[in-house]
Amino acid sequence: MTRTMASIGTKWKPIIIYTIGKRTIRFGQIYALMGIISKKVLTEQLKELVEDGIISREKFDELPPRVEYTLTPKGIDLLRILNMLTIWNDKHNPEPAQK
Hints:
Radius of gyration: 14 Å
Keywords: DNA-binding, Transcription, Transcription regulation
Shape: globular
Distance between the termini: 27 Å
Helix content: 55-70%
Strand content: 5-15%
Number of helices: 5
CATH superfamily: Winged helix-like DNA-binding domain superfamily/Winged helix DNA-binding domain
Pfam families: HxlR
Protein name: Helix-turn-helix transcriptional regulator
């Protein structure tokens, strides 16, 4: 469990994985959907997720530069687990989370 949490245990990584989901998405779209994360932290977390093989990053040689993110097979497996956690939470905590 310690090793698992080291891989996905930050506040943001599970949310980023869930936000990307089963689609290809650009940095700006992730940032807009999350809304409450700084660009610096999002960049750092995406880099770590790429290094861990959970997401893939594709850079296109265009102007302006374009970068797209997708979940790897490893990331899709993890997304399934995060979805199960969401279902568990909805079952046991039906009230919306307080901010």
